[in-house]
C-alpha cells in the first residue's frame, strides 16, 4: 500500500544525497531489468553497492524506493524545455515539438520506465497518477496554452485546445512509440521521426488551421 505522504526525496547533507543517488541508480537498473515484482531489496542493495542495512536507512521498502524513482523520472521529463514561444509560427513549433517529444519518449530506457510504471499503476495508483500529472498532463497543458494563443490571434480554429494538444501528441506517436514500448521495434531514426511528425502536422493543420477567405 502506498503512503499518503511519500517520504522526502532529498535527505539533508551532501553525503546523504550522494548515497541516496547511488541507491536510486542501482535500484533503477534492477527495476528496469527485472520489473517491480522481480526486484528484491537484496538485489537492489547488491546493484547499488551498499548493505541492506544502509538501504533501509533511506527507504522503508521497495515501494517507497520505486516511488522515488518514478518521482525523479517525472521531474526530469517535466523539465524538458520544449520551445512554445508564442511568437513562433505554428508549423515550425509543431514540427520541432513533435520531433523532440518522440525522441524523449523513445530514448534509451524511456520505454522501460513507461512499461514499469504501467505494470505497477494498478497496484500503486498514486504512483501512476503522479507520473501522468507530472509528465503527460503537463506537456499537454504546455502545448494547449500555445495553441490558445494562436486561436486568439486567428491562426487556428480550435474549440478545445486540451483535446487538440492530446490529438497532436497521439498523431506524432503513430507507428513509432507503441512498437518501441513493446520492444517490437528499435528506437526510430531521426529521419523516420521527422517523416511521421511531418504527416501529423499536416493532418493537424488540415483540421484546425483557420481557412483564409
UniProtKB/TrEMBL annotation:
GO terms for molecular function: DNA-binding transcription factor activity; transcription cis-regulatory region binding. It comes from the Bacteria. Keywords: DNA-binding, Transcription, Transcription regulation. Pfam families: TetR_C_7, TetR_N. InterPro entries: DNA-bd_HTH_TetR-type_CS, Homeodomain-like_sf, HTH-type_TetR-like_transc_reg, HTH_TetR, Tet_transcr_reg_TetR-rel_C_sf, TetR_C_Proteobacteria. It comes from Bradyrhizobium sediminis. This is TetR/AcrR family transcriptional regulator. SUPFAM superfamilies: Homeodomain-like, Tetracyclin repressor-like, C-terminal domain. PANTHER family: HTH-TYPE TRANSCRIPTIONAL DUAL REGULATOR CECR, HTH-TYPE TRANSCRIPTIONAL REGULATOR RUTR. Residues 17-77 form the HTH tetR-type domain.
Amino acid at each position: 500500500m502506498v503512503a499518503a505522504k511519500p517520504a522526502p526525496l532529498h535527505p539533508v547533507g551532501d553525503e546523504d544525497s550522494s548515497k541516496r543517488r547511488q541507491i536510486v541508480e542501482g535500484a533503477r537498473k534492477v527495476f528496469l531489468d527485472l520489473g517491480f515484482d522481480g526486484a528484491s531489496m537484496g538485489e537492489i542493495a547488491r546493484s547499488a553497492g551498499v548493505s541492506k542495512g544502509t538501504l533501509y536507512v533511506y527507504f522503508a521498502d521497495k515501494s517507497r524506493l520505486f516511488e522515488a524513482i518514478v518521482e525523479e523520472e517525472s521531474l526530469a521529463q517535466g523539465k524538458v524545455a520544449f520551445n512554445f514561444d508564442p511568437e513562433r509560427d505554428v508549423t515550425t513549433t509543431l514540427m520541432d515539438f513533435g520531433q523532440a517529444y518522440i525522441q524523449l519518449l523513445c530514448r534509451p530506457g524511456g520505454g522501460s520506465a513507461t512499461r514499469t510504471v504501467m505494470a505497477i499503476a494498478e497496484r500503486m495508483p498514486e504512483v501512476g497518477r503522479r507520473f501522468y500529472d507530472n509528465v503527460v498532463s503537463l506537456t499537454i497543458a504546455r502545448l494547449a496554452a500555445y495553441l490558445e494563443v494562436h486561436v486568439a490571434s486567428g491562426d487556428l480554429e480550435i474549440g478545445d485546445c486540451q483535446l487538440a494538444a492530446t490529438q497532436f501528441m497521439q498523431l506524432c506517436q503513430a507507428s513509432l512509440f507503441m512498437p518501441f514500448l513493446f520492444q517490437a521495434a528499435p528506437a526510430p531514426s531521426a529521419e523516420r521521426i521527422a517523416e511521421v511528425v511531418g504527416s501529423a502536422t499536416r493532418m493537424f493543420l488540415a483540421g484546425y488551421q483557420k481557412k483564409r477567405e
